[in-house]
From TrEMBL, chain A:
Domain Mannose-1-phosphate guanyltransferase C-terminal: from-to ranges: 297-414
Taxonomic lineage from the root: Eukaryota, Viridiplantae, Streptophyta, Embryophyta, Tracheophyta
Organism: Olea europaea subsp. europaea
Listed GO MF terms: nucleotidyltransferase activity
Protein family: Belongs to the transferase hexapeptide repeat family.
Single GO BP term: regulation of L-ascorbic acid biosynthetic process
InterPro entries linked to this entry: GMPPB_C, Mannose-1P_guanyltransferase, NTP_transferase_dom, Nucleotide-diphossugar_trans
Signal peptide: none
Lineage: superkingdom: Eukaryota
Name of the protein: Mannose-1-phosphate guanyltransferase alpha-like
Domain Nucleotidyl transferase: 10-209
Automatic annotation (TrEMBL), chain B:
Domain Mannose-1-phosphate guanyltransferase C-terminal as annotated: residue spans: 251-360
Molecular functions (GO terms): GTP binding; mannose-1-phosphate guanylyltransferase (GTP) activity
Occurrences of domain Nucleotidyl transferase (ranges): 2-233
Designated name of the protein: mannose-1-phosphate guanylyltransferase
This protein's record includes keyword Transit peptide: no
Annotated family: Belongs to the transferase hexapeptide repeat family.
EC id: 2.7.7.13
Family annotation (SUPFAM superfamilies): Nucleotide-diphospho-sugar transferases (SSF53448)
Pathway: Nucleotide-sugar biosynthesis; GDP-alpha-D-mannose biosynthesis; GDP-alpha-D-mannose from alpha-D-mannose 1-phosphate (GTP route): step 1/1
InterPro entries referenced in this protein's UniProt entry, alphabetically: GMPPB_C, GMPPB_N, Mannose-1P_guanyltransferase, NTP_transferase_dom, Nucleotide-diphossugar_trans
Residues making up the signal peptide according to the UniProt record: none
Pfam families (UniProt xref): GMPPB_C, NTP_transferase
CDD domains hit by this protein: M1P_guanylylT_B_like_N (cd06425)
């Protein structure tokens, strides 16, 4: 008989500023996990998925960003979701599994029976309650969320082989050169507290190996003086690979969407995926309009309640408009993310772009790109407070903050 | 006497360096740009400097605290809440610039480096008795700038012509002014251009005079001019036989090396190089026409020319960095890498060569 008090906690790895360079110029003033996707910060999506977990006690965000960058968000989301969310700052890299071990005391505070581990830059359906049920059925140490992808793209991820009947993880290899499997690791896991023992084992083995080397007495003093293990433990190579096939790890396959949010271009794609999910799960989050009282809306669009959009504008598909944005008459927006306080003047067109906070887009100007998410300049990004003057055209370019464009540009990075 | 330094703006042309510090604090010849101006003002007896800023005031204010004591001059900030152009900030700082002495005050543009012959400018100002004096400098391509048309013998300014299509003169505004307090009565507290609105008015009243700037002049607001500017600056140090210039068998031409920097064996440094505090230049390194900022490590056998290496960066062994490569703060170029004009934003590692000029974000 299950204990009704079995608590569950969730840990979301948010990373640090070093990984944010691909999100420049947007990441200059906002940590990547707080950049908006479908109208809410990136990290909000896994956090609100955690809300569906029964008996959720706490959510931990672990990362390298300064605490103060997350303080405001963490307190407001705790309030909104009525569940404690805490940001834990790592002092130095411990590896994906090492981080979990480093904060073991906090994570185990409520003596949870299960611990979810999610990566913040994963965009998916997060079927967490199903994973919890599956994990209880399998009875091992942990369960990985997995998905089938095309054979060509599989080698960018962790490829794995699972038993089709028992769903046990039989084999795991990270970014292999030759084809192993089209089933890949989604970066969403559920573990029992036994995971900490497994990580500790890895540390012990690392220390043993270090001790076997001949050391001078001075070096030996250094080794014993180190109290917490200072080496690096990665989840994939150090835990998943070695434990595959030992009846400890299992898989749960999702048939829904999955993406890794690696670049701003992909974040527009992920924004679209979440908006499509809203259409099914919470359609009142999406905007509606036919050009009479409200702007014409095509496809999935979300508009912040404080934004003002003129009824003669046509918005969508796949557009997110953030707070205090002003969209003037005759504007056309397609496949774009418009951040807070942006002003878009009459008859402007914005396509396949991200427009940074407080920017202003002039009359009849065009801000666009070809929308190829895999190209470096495949989407146009305007940093904070960029001014595009009237009738100027900006194509396939990235513009750093506080610039004013009075001439058209194409295929350029403007510092 | 008092002075105002127009600091203004975001310094976007000096990115990626200005992504780490505001432009006046970017080092030039091993000293924050603005320090060159503040020291020149202090040398002729200015007792208070007002910095007209509109960006990152906290960073500037911290810097000021450090330097106020060291230099022995009062430094205050006048912060614009909206950009006020090139004249508006003077109106904003009005109370700070005027006092009972009624002395004229200096106004300097923070992007400019020159020899700052301010004592001569004071004498010139007294001798013509007008309301305002400006320094002008001769350039080869006046049409890129605002040309000052003046009467040669007296220096009285007739008019300003912005980017003239036909030749009207080859003297341009050098960004150094000495103004009587009455000029402030001509400036409203709104975005105003000193060249387009204020000076033409004073010129019409025949009260504006221009003096040709002796010595070198450069607007170092962008990387190419920064590098040329260093050459001019070091050249002027040479003319004054300054002891600051480095000497030795491994030095060619004019080179500045901070006393805390270390240079290894078998290096060849120069011409026109500045090496900042705490830098380590390992053995066998060739440096020419470049600036190496505080805390940089250049590893063995590397070769750098016509580039700027930002604070705390490293350049790997046998790396070759040239042709206007600008490395921002904390950029690490791997061993054996080639950079041809790479412009690299802060906190990056360069693990593959940059074959043609490109921005690395």
């Amino acid at each position: 008989m299950e204990s009704l008090e079995e608590k569950v906690v969730a840990v979301i790895i948010v990373g640090g500023p070093a990984e944010g360079t691909r999100f420049r110029p947007l990441s200059f003033n906002t940590p990547k996990p707080l950049l908006p996707l479908a109208g809410r910060p990136m990290v909000h999506h896994p956090i609100s998925a955690c809300k569906k977990i029964p008996n959720l006690a706490q959510i931990f965000l672990i990362g390298f960003y300064e605490g103060k960058e997350f303080a405001l968000y963490v307190s407001s989301i705790s309030n909104e979701l009525q569940v404690p969310v805490r940001y834990l700052k790592e002092d130095k890299p411990h590896g994906s599994a090492g981080s979990l071990y480093y904060f073991q005391d906090q994570i185990m505070e409520d003596s949870p029976s299960h611990i979810f581990l999610l990566n913040c830059d994963v965009c998916c359906n997060f079927p967490l309650p199903n994973m919890l049920d599956a994990q209880k059925r399998y009875g091992g140490m942990g369960t990985l969320l997995v998905i089938k992808v095309s054979a060509e793209s599989a080698n960018q991820f962790g490829e794995l082989v699972a038993d089709p009947i028992t769903k046990e993880l039989l084999h795991y290899t990270e970014k292999p050169e030759t084809f192993v499997s089209d089933l890949i690791n989604c970066g969403v896991y559920i573990f029992t507290p036994k995971i900490f023992d497994a990580i500790e084992d890895v540390y012990m083995r690392q220390e043993d190996r270090a001790n076997v080397h001949h050391v001078t007495s001075f070096e030996a003093l250094q080794i014993t003086a180190r109290s917490p293990p200072t080496d690096f433990v990665r989840l994939d190579q150090d835990i998943l690979s070695p434990l595959a096939g030992k009846r400890q790890l299992y898989t749960y396959e999702t048939m829904d969407f999955w993406e890794q949010i690696k670049t701003p271009g992909i974040s527009i794609k992920c924004s679209a995926l979440y908006l499509a999910q809203f259409r099914i799960a919470s359609p009142d989050l999406l905007a509606k309009g036919d050009g009479t009282k409200n702007a014409t809306v095509v496809g999935d669009v979300c508009i912040h309640p404080s934004a003002k959009v003129h009824p003669t504008a046509k918005i969508g598909p796949n557009v997110s408009i953030s707070a205090n944005v002003r969209v003037s008459p005759g504007v056309r927006l397609i496949n774009c993310i418009i951040l807070d306080d942006v002003e878009i003047d009459e008859n402007a067109v914005v396509m396949h772009s991200i427009v940074g906070w407080k920017s202003s887009i002039g009359k009849w100007s065009r801000v666009q790109a070809d929308g190829d998410y895999n190209k470096k300049l495949g989407i146009t990004i305007l940093g904070e407070a960029v001014t595009v003057e009237d009738e100027v055209v900006v194509i396939n370019s990235i513009v750093l903050p506080n610039k004013s464009l009075n001439e058209s540009v194409q295929d350029e990075i403007i510092l | 006497m008092k002075a105002l330094i127009l600091v203004g703006g975001f310094g976007t042309r000096l990115r990626p360096l200005t992504l780490s510090v505001p432009k006046p604090l970017v080092d030039f010849a091993n000293k924050p740009m603005i320090l060159h101006q503040i020291e020149a003002l202090k040398a002729i007896g200015v007792t208070e400097v007002v910095l007209a800023i509109n960006y990152q005031p906290e960073v500037m204010l911290n810097f000021l605290k450090d330097f106020e004591e060291k230099i022995g001059i009062k430094i205050t900030c006048s912060q614009e809440t909206e950009p006020l152009g090139t004249a508006g900030p003077l109106a904003l700082a009005r109370d700070k610039l005027t006092d009972i002495s009624g002395d004229p005050f200096f106004v300097l543009n923070s992007d400019v480096i020159s020899e700052y012959p301010l004592k001569q400018m004071i004498e010139f100002h007294k001798s013509h008795g007008g309301e305002a004096s400006i320094m002008v400098t001769k350039v080869d391509e006046p049409s890129k700038y605002g040309v000052v048309v003046m009467e040669e013998s007296t220096g009285q300014v007739e008019r300003f012509v912005e980017k003239p299509k036909l030749f009207v003169g080859n003297k341009i505004n050098a960004g150094i002014y000495l103004l009587n307090p009455s000029v402030l009565d001509r400036i409203e507290l709104r975005p105003t251009s000193i060249e387009k609105e204020v000076f033409p008015n004073i010129a019409r009243d025949k009260k504006l005079y221009a003096m040709v700037l002796p010595g070198f002049w450069m607007d170092i607001g962008q990387p190419r001019d920064y590098i040329s500017g260093l050459r001019l600056y070091l050249d002027s140090l040479k003319k004054k036989s300054s002891p600051k210039l480095a000497a030795g068998p491994h030095i060619i031409g004019n080179v500045l090396v901070d006393e805390s920097a270390k240079i290894g064996e078998g290096c060849l440094i120069g011409p026109d190089v500045a090496i900042g505090p705490g830098c380590v230049v390992e053995s066998g390194v060739r440096l020419s026409r470049c600036t190496v900022m505080r805390g940089v490590r250049i590893k063995k056998h590397a070769c750098i020319s016509s580039s700027i290496i930002g604070w705390h960066s490293t350049v790997g062994q046998w790396a070759r960095v040239e042709n206007m490569t600008i490395l921002g703060e904390d950029v690490h170029v791997g061993d054996e890498i080639y950079s041809n004009g790479g412009v690299v934003l802060p906190h990056k590692e360069i693990k593959s060569s940059i074959l043609k000029p490109e921005i690395v974000m």
